[in-house]
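User: Structure tokens for this complex, please. No commentary.
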Amino acid sequence: MPKDNFSRPPAHPAVTDPTQSAFCPRYLAAKKAIDDRALNHHVWESLRLALAQTAGSEPLKIIEIGAGIGTMLERVVERGLLTGPAVYVASDSDPSQLRAARQELSQWAQKRGHVLSWSGEHQGRLRTAGADVSIVLDPASAEELADRSDTLGAFDLLIAHAVLDLVDFPALLPRLLPRLKANGLTYLTCNFDGDTLFLPEWDGEQEILRQYHASMDARIAGASHTGRRLLTCLQRPGLELLAAGSSDWVIHPRNAGYTMEETFFLNALIETIERELAKKSSPPSNLVTWARLRYRQVAAGELSFLARHLDLLARRQGPLP
Ligand SMILES: C[S@@+](CC[C@H](N)C(=O)[O-])C[C@H]1O[C@@H](n2cnc3c(N)ncnc32)[C@H](O)[C@@H]1O
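Assistant:
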């Protein structure tokens, strides 16, 4: 990457608007490039091959839950996964994410010379050199989708990216996966798996991170180990686990700096941990010191960061018990 894509980051700015969710559109936009390089190549390649076998003469039907601002749709187009007509339902429980998705997708399409037109609030049509995609922005939670029977019928592919640690997936997936066709695929990516690491090491940080992971588990039991739990869950009868692999986030300074996205993303992560633990009745006594140190290290281009994730691809084989 050329050097001028890097910046000496400014001193820690207010990176997230406290009135917005932790997953504000700016954060999801910054995350895209980090996810792009983290996504597991073997699992992606397995998806590409399996989807080519699945595709019939009908338009490919894809549904994504927790789609945020639509970066996975951009990715499947950019990476050439869609080579013909397709319907892509991008759903999210937060309607404001889908409003941002419409804006993000429009800007992205324009930048790349694709044709994207909207009819009404939620329907779009994207035409690229290789693909013709009907887009449906569906403001529905994954739980609502699981229970809803609608006109779209069964899907060839269900995508969930960086969302399954926010839902009770052992209860959700058995209700959602029957919405796949026989031999339909599910691509479940960026599933957090219990490890966060900031470097250089700092005494006392282990306890801060332990409490942060515990706060995830307090919201949804087992959330901090979603990756490994999915690995087991997808080996149940009626499913074939086709591929699995790591998709860790790894960020380190280059030329004593980061890309703009990395700077924003690192500051947002530190702020998320700080804000989450500050809500506790007795926050760790070293929390503020820790956060200030880590913000300073981002500003100085001295921080490295790792988070462990797993990507998985499974196929529906027949009736699900
Ligand atoms: C971490 S963001 C990931 C967004 C997107 N997949 C990405 O990686 O850019 C999680 C998204 O899931 C959505 N979400 C949270 N709980 C949900 C649920 N129960 N059903 C559907 N979406 C949900 C949030 O609104 C948010 O947009």
